[in-house]
Amino acid sequence: MFEFIKGDVVELTPTLAILENNGIAYSINITISTYTAIQGKKNVCLYLYEAIREDAFILYGFAEKTERQMFLLLISVSGVGAGTARVILSSVSVPELQAAIAGGNEALFKGVKGIGLKTAQRIIIDLKDKVLSIQTVPGAINISSTLSEVQEEAVSALVMLGFAAPAVRKVISKIAEADSSLGVEMIIKKALKMI
Predict the structure, then answer these.
(1) Fewest beta carbons within 10 Å, which of 39, 52, 70, 86?
(2) Residue 44, SS3 per DSSP
(3) CA distance 66 to 119
(4) Are the C-beta atoms of residues 77 and 85 closer than 8 Å to each other?
């Protein structure tokens, strides 16, 4: 099993990173938070999970160990595959997930594409005792903080364009943290570059 890979970024999209190491290019599936963390960097280190199937060998990469730990917990739940776990982690931060699982917040999971009520309940029941073992990064962004009216308007517009609400809120919170005086149009433009 691979622990991590260090390499030069050859190509980067919100869902895929291609890293070159010693003449070999690795195609690695990533989350939006990993994309945000490594965006603009030439050389990066990603913590890996490898999924080996009959017909495929798939790598999943994470900028933080805590995100990989949460990914491993999520895929241990019956009915949650690697793709679904990646969508969850792209929509919600690790501290937010921990709080949602510990607090039994089914609504947060149901807001994620591909997660229904039964799967949300199963995630909470199966992981309630396990999530507290993950050490989160100090100073993590509190996404659940209230957004201003202008920021909420930007969230609504982006959701109408088809983006997932939790991911949009996460991005807009980061934009607001950097500059809270932006108008709706500028927030949307910046968010579209980050999503």
Answers:
(1) 52
(2) strand
(3) 22
(4) no
pLDDT computed for residue 92 by the predictor: 85
| Local structure of residue 72 (DSSP, 8 states) | H
CATH of 65-133, one of 1.10.150.20, 1.10.1200.10, 3.40.50.800, 1.10.10.10: 1.10.150.20
Q: Which residues of the chain are in CATH 1.10.150.20 domains?
A: 65-133
Q: Is the pLDDT of residue 145 over 50?
A: no
Reduce the DSSP state of residue 163 to 3 states and report it. Answer: coil
Label residue 28 by pLDDT band (50, 70, 90).
very high
Average pLDDT, the chain: 86
d(CA 38, CA 32): 10
Condensed to tens digits (0 to 9), the pLDDT of residues 152-188 reads 788 877 877 778 777 888 888 888 888 878 888 888 8
For residue 154, count CB atoms less than 10 angstroms from its CB and return exposed for 0-12, middle for 13-18, buried for 19 or more: buried
- Could you give the CA distance from residue 7 to residue 139 in angstroms, rounded to a whole number? 27
